[in-house]
Amino acid sequence: MKQQTKLELAVGVFVFAGLVALGLLALKIGSGSLVHGDTYTVTAEFANTGSLNPGSNVVIAGVPVGRVVAVRLDGKRYRAIVELRLPKDVRLPLDTIASIRTAGLIGDKYVGLAPGGDPDLIATDGQGKITEHEDDVDIASLISRFAFGSVQKPDSPDKK
User: Fold this and answer.
1) Which distant-in-sequence residues (6+ apart) come within 8 Å of 110 by Cβ?
2) 3-class SS of residue 23
3) Sequence-distant contacts of 100-106: CB under 8 A, at least 24 apart
């Protein structure tokens, strides 16, 4: 009987250790730190982020390079501040443009980065900011305005 209890205890400890290791691996993969190693955080400011959420991709030239860490509101200026986590080997010029894109017509939102040509680079010390941005276009509201006729046409010279 005592031998059976020791075996059950050993199996229980082994299963528990395996579950803890699996949980840690899932956290590392989810944050991208397992794939990219050392990372740094930069912020970008937008007037409208649409439905961009933490965990969304950050993409350069169609290649996922990072993740959105947080989306929060600047209470003084009423602008959305988006925190992006990028690998240290992805260095961005100061004139990089951040834009919110949609994968497909009604797909998930992601942040697209278009690096510029400035020789100076954004800081990797956690204080870096992307100052150039392009806000999200709300396709659903554009379609509904078009469908219900509230899109204004310019006056033609013939109607005057």
Assistant:
1) 52, 56, 57, 58, 59, 68, 100, 101, 102, 103
2) helix
3) 100/46, 100/48, 100/49, 100/50, 100/52, 100/134, 100/135, 100/136, 101/59, 102/50, 102/136, 102/139, 105/139, 106/139, 106/140
* Contact call for residues 96 and 130 (beta carbons, < 8 A): yes
Which tokens belong to 63?
Answer: 């290649």
The dihedral formed by the CA atoms of 88, 57, 45 and 142, expressed in degrees to the nearest 10: 160
- Exposed, middle or buried by CB within 10 Å (0-12, 13-18, 19+), for 114? middle
A 10 A CB-CB count for 5 gives 9
**Which two tokens mark 70?**
């947080």
CB 124 within 8 A of CB 150: no
The one-letter amino acid at 47: A
pLDDT above 90 for 14: yes
Give the bridge partners for 132, in sequence order: 97
Mean pLDDT over 50-64 rounds to: 89
The structural domains of the chain, with segments of one domain joined by +, span 1-31, 38-146
pLDDT of 116 strictly over 50: yes
